Amino acid sequence: TRHLNSPEAVVSTQSTGGGAPQQSGPTPFQQYGQYMNDPVVANMAMQYGSSLATSGKAYVEQNLDRYIPVSRVKFYFAVTTDYVIHKLLLLLLPFMNKEWGAYSSGNGEPTRHLNSPDLYIPVMGFATYVVVVAVALGSQGKFTPEMLGMTATTAFVWLLIEIGVVQLAMYLVSVTTDIKLFDLAAFSGYKFVHMIVCVVSSMLLGSLGYYVSFIYASSAIVYFLICTLRYIILPDSAEDRIARGSKRRNNLLLLIAFIQPLIIFWLTHHVTYGSDPELPIKKKKF
After folding, report:
1. Global pTM?
2. To bridge 276 with a disulfide, which of 177, 206, 224, 260 should be the other Cys (CB 3.0-4.6 Å)?
3. In order along the chain (286 residues), what is the average pLDDT of each group of 10 residues?
């Protein structure tokens, strides 16, 4: 006789079908697939998923508007071609404009007036400035792919620093104005239009063209900001003009205006290091 625990006994038991019977059937994954293939179940799952996505979207939009005013941000990009053309002319030729005034309606909502701020021109100006600087450096043989990211990052960081400095100054001098954060970002971003003019003048006319355009661009942006923001920062009534805080408001207005030429020069003067372009002047033959 063979021992029951011997290998021969185990093989004999398995070959004769001994031991517990093994049941064969669908796996849990197969059962789940068969369950989802049911048209009724699939339809219910689609309806539940659609309702869940709709409610989730509504919840996100409702709670997102608490922290980021999406409707107001959309307004700053809601511009027309006519507005963009006239606003660019106003930025480049502010000395010819005779109508300056507040850009907000009585209920505090912004109105699409020529003096109202927008973010479309600053954003497009920012992107165009980066490309123009790359072209200017490329004409001097100094362009590298890393220069695009470096130029964009430097300009964006300086824009954030400027907005932070103005906000800090308003807090320190305890000046309360109607200017919003997006308004301040728009007014600070308008300088990119003048920076493009400086860079293009540098490419076409060399260092002399750059410094001439820089002087004019600085004067234009300072004049534009003073004329636009004085109706918002400075008090309207005569009694408030002689109030204690009027001097602080004047200093705040001058800070916002005269900080623009400094940043314009810092972000554009490096493109004037190349050689001046040769003017097509024919030499006289003797």
Report:
1. 0.70
2. 206
3. 49 48 54 59 68 66 60 83 93 90 51 82 96 91 87 95 91 78 92 96 91 96 92 63 64 91 94 60 48
